[in-house]
Amino acid sequence: MSREKQRGFRVVGTNATKVDGLSLVTGRPKFVADIDLADTLIVRLLTSPHAHARITAIDTSGAEAIPGVACVLAHTNTPTPRFTTAGQGYPEPSPYDTRLFDSKVRFVGDFVAAVAAESQEVAERAVRALRVSYEQLPAALSIDDALADGAPVIHDEPDAQGIYDALHNVAANVDIDVGDAASAFDACPVVVETTCETPYAQHTPIETHLVHSALDSDGRLVLRSSTQVPFHARRIVAHTLGLPLHRIRVIKPRVGGGFGTKQEILLESIAGLVTLRTGRPALLQLTRHEEFVSSRTRHPMRVRVKAGAEKDGTLRALEMEALSNTGAYGSHALTVLSNTGSKTLPLYNKASDVHFYGVALYTNLPVAGAYRGYGATQGYFPLETAMDQLAERVGLDPITVREKNHIRSGESSPIFEKLGEGREGVAFSIRSCELPRCIEIGRQRIAWDERRGRRNREGSWVHGLGMSIHMQGSGIPQIDMGAATVRMNEDGSCQLLVGATDIGTGSDTILSQIAAEVLGIPSSHVVVTSSDTDTTPFDVGAYASSTTYVSGMAVQRAAEKVRAQILDVAAGALQVGREALSLEAGRVVAADGRSASLAELCSRATHVVDQFQIEATASCVPEESPPPFLASFAEVAVDTETGFVKVVKYVAAVDCGVPINPKMAEGQVEGAIVNGIGYALTEHMLFSSRGRVRNPSLFDYKIPCAADVPDIDVVLVDSYEPTGPMGAKSVGEIAINAPIPTIANAIYDAVGVRLTTTPFTPERVLAAMRKASEAP
Amino acid sequence: MKIETTLNGCRRAVDIRPGETLLEMLRRLGMHGVKEGCGSGDCGACTVLLDGSAINACLAFAAKAHGHTVTTIEGLASGDTLHPVQQAFLDEGAIQCGYCTPGMVLSAVDFLRHHQRPTDDEIRRAIAGNLCRCTGYAKQVAAIRRASESEPREDA
For A252-267, how does the pLDDT look when each residue is reduced to its tens digit (9 = 90+)? Predict the structure, then answer.
């Protein structure tokens, strides 16, 4: 059925060239720092050397005396309102526990002061001249430390708001029940249980966080920021600095990668304050070292999953307990924790009784924030490990157990309603789910039936196959809002203004394709302006897998309104009723064959008769969050002498609805899989006994390079989501969740050991194999 | 001090500061396609061609360009005609955020000078010094393969 629906598309479903591709591949100045910085002050930061300490004194006089120093900021001379750095829908479900600069530091890397100077050299010299006295406090450097009796209270400040239980370091708490899981487990003949741990890991966009601030000719603050959330940034800066919202403009130029870390408002207020104090432009960019120690990370978690089933493998009960480490501040503590359950447990809706609970704990370690996958990554590891354990216990193929239990089109899960993002969710049913076909395609492409369980050997290397299945969401229902403006030019081209924030995902391109599809013009006739709070309509920004589904629907609606206006103009021009007109290939055609080009009609409306601007704005607040689905398969080779794990082949079959631009959709999956392979095999932030990051560089923190990863075989399975723009769902996040459980299950198939802590380093694999061989 | 260099085909006399890196100098001269991702030679975003060979501009002193030819991404196309590697990156959808793209393209240009018909494994090793967090490398490898199959260029 879906193929017929798609058949009518001309622009949607094609690999339109990226609208900003030419400028990027020729290196034209597109990014925040690519402007003339001649008059710009350079801002450098002093960060805390201690995991937990009070600042007893800070002497800035030495720094201020250095020629060329324009401004020093510290807790002694800066605004004090507490806020959250999490750029989320307002009111944010996050604690207001952060200050621009505080009199207490809560992790190694916490901001202590900032210096603005005429050059980087002078700014760095001035930072070194700052004299700070600290009273060190006991620190909590793990989830267990934070939970312990008598643990230091990390947020003892009286003016924080929204912390669940500050005295016990609990930033957030979630506890939901569907049915009665405890009783249901008692009645289950088969129960499996596993606990998995995932460590601190980082996004590592190749462009670090940065912002340029300046005053415009009217004295308004203009922030050019590498951000995923320009509108949230404007609001949070206004709150922090006490400025009226309309005195701030946030412009998002090209962004050199985000992955969630640029959903945080880290630098904008500091640079903005420098500009307000000095009247000068200011540039603040984190060094790679600072990016590692002071920006944001994935939430480390310990997640336990218990699954109860009948002897035939049919699930009856699921329990998931998540302990999350939010680090020193509560940024995305509650919502990431919520998603650990809400984006995973509905996948197995045959389990009638479900209990999900957990806490997010403060520690004196770097701050966790939004990271692609957003809690689901941590939840799928134990969930998909447990499904393999269940399959083994009941003597079924891992695929069969999943096929028996996964959610299907027309079905729902009570968890959709019980558990939203920081509050109750929204009930809805699945309208598109091609997971069965995703599984079948993956099964064939990886040669599951021929190669799994064979333990094929090549020297010391043993091969194994693993799989896992996944869902995510498409935006946050009844919370996220995206808006778009479509405006026709007199030559029949159009301006598309969106608050949707292209951070490299290609959203400018796919949104132009949606507008072009509705208006019957080539996507090259759509000029996109994205993310400038002065000129584009509101959008929550690039997160929660929302842009295609939410912003895309706003674009479709705005374009449909404009199309109606064009038909009205044509009805006048051709002297026929509007219902007799159709718009195709750049012309409006009447039933009798007469026609007028879009250029003629738009010129007529602009210059000739009944003049008006053909233009419309539309918004979308989704009522549902249709999940994309993914079946993930990998073949790994494990070196039994060294424990080294190599991914030999990877297959990802995805149902993302209609892919607006298939190559870009594939690119989202490929990038997410490789990021996930990194988290599975090599990536973890290491800490000293005092809470200092031991590997804060791209040399010591190993992300995959091209030579590390296999070809990823991505299959976009034919699908159509009836509530989505042009049948589309999301695709940005889902695939990052897959590599950890897929590779873990493949390692088990190869060498018979279950790894429950990432990354699966050679040491860990070898130790697990030795332990298994020594076991009686 | 003053150096003389040929930058993207133009002879330039440039005043440089002691200790200034080639990356700093090039960006100061408006070559904003040269990106900084780490400042320590780990990510490859600042890759430029020095006498045709790819180097990390963050690790080279500006003085190293004295008497030599430097090509940045801005100097790669011939007028409106993109270099085959650039064109292939566009055609294969190998660009996401685009921050690593200039360095990746220039590494590929250097590599393809010496490798007429490389295997995918050779391509993967050739760009192993250019980190990309967006693409998963698949489309970049495909683009470089595609460029290798197009007509060779004299000036590459």
Answer: 999 999 999 999 999 9
Q: Cα–Cα distance between B13 and B7 in angstroms, integer?
A: 10
Report yes or no: A210 and A279 within 8 Å, Cβ to Cβ. Answer: no
Q: What CATH fold (topology level) applies to the domain B84-149? A: DNA polymerase; domain 1 (1.10.150)
* Residue from the list B35, B93, B129 with its beta carbon closest to the beta carbon of A15: B93
Expressed in percent and rounded to 5, the helix, strand and coil fractions of chain B are 35, 15, 45
Residue among A17, A30, A206 whose CB faces B90 most closely: A17
Which of A15, A204, A673 comes nearest B133 by C-beta?
A: A204
Q: Is the pLDDT of residue B152 over 60?
A: no
Dihedral angle computed from the Cα positions of residues A372, A375, A377 and A383, in that order, rounded to the nearest 10 degrees: -160
B142 touches chain A (CB under 8 A): no
Q: Which residues pair with A73 in a beta bridge?
A: A114
Binary contact (A709, B129; C-beta < 8 A): no
Q: Which residue has the tokens 């799989």?
A: A467
**Whether residue A634 has pLDDT greater than 60:** yes
Pick the CATH number of B2-75 from 2.130.10.10, 1.20.190.50, 3.10.20.30, 3.40.50.300: 3.10.20.30
CB contact under 8 A, A25 and B86: yes
Residue of A nearest to B134 (CA): A671
**Predicted TM-score of the model (pTM):** 0.97
pLDDT tops 80 at residue A593: yes
Domain ranges of chain B: 2-75, 84-149
Is pLDDT of A1 > 80?
A: no
Instruction: Tell me, rounded to whole angstroms, the distance of Cα A591 from its chain centroid.
Output: 48
Provide, as residue numbers in chain B, all residues whose Cβ is less than 8 Å from the Cβ of A15. 93
ipTM above 0.90, yes or no: yes
Provide the pLDDT for residue A36: 87
Instruction: Tell me if chain A has a CB within 8 Å of the CB of B1.
Output: no
Q: Which residue in chain A has the smallest CA separation from B33? A: A27
**A472 falls in which pLDDT band (50, 70, 90)?**
very high
Output the average pLDDT for chain A. 97
Domains and CATH numbers, chain A: 41-137+209-285 (3.90.1170.50), 301-476+624-774 (3.30.365.10), 481-620 (3.30.365.10)
B105 at the A interface (CB within 8 A)? yes
Closest by CA position to A654, among listed A572, A573, A715, A700: A715
